[in-house]
Task: inverse folding
């Protein structure tokens, strides 16, 4: 496989994506149009960004959620705010999981807290 050769899923996703945040397309819409499952759509979007530098943004707030190709540097930077927050939260999750030594310790913690009262 050549690095500069788009794969079928990547081409299909790229053909659907529009420029500009006002033209965002949801992952579900892309999946419906392409017939691909959401994991393959997500993978194709990641590959388009990582391998080819396509400035695809995933909007998670506002009236129109979905994916779009940034038209300006400002639009790109605005779109990166959500991604940066997501990365921070995932890093926190990773840090906690990596620090766990006793994989059953949470059971004692939850017994003392809210969890025990809802069982």
Result:
């Amino acid at each position: 496989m050549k690095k500069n050769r788009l794969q079928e899923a990547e081409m299909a996703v790229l053909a659907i994506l529009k420029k500009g945040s006002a033209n965002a397309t949801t992952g579900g819409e892309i999946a419906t149009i392409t017939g691909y499952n959401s994991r393959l759509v997500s993978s194709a979007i990641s590959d388009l960004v990582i391998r080819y530098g396509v400035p695809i943004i995933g909007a998670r707030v506002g009236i129109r959620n979905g994916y779009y190709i940034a038209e300006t540097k400002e639009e790109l930077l605005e779109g990166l705010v959500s991604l940066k927050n997501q990365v921070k939260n995932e890093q926190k999750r990773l840090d906690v999981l990596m620090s766990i030594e006793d994989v059953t310790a949470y059971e004692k913690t939850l017994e003392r807290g809210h969890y025990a009262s809802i069982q």
Remarks:
- The first strand starts at residue 56 and ends at 59.
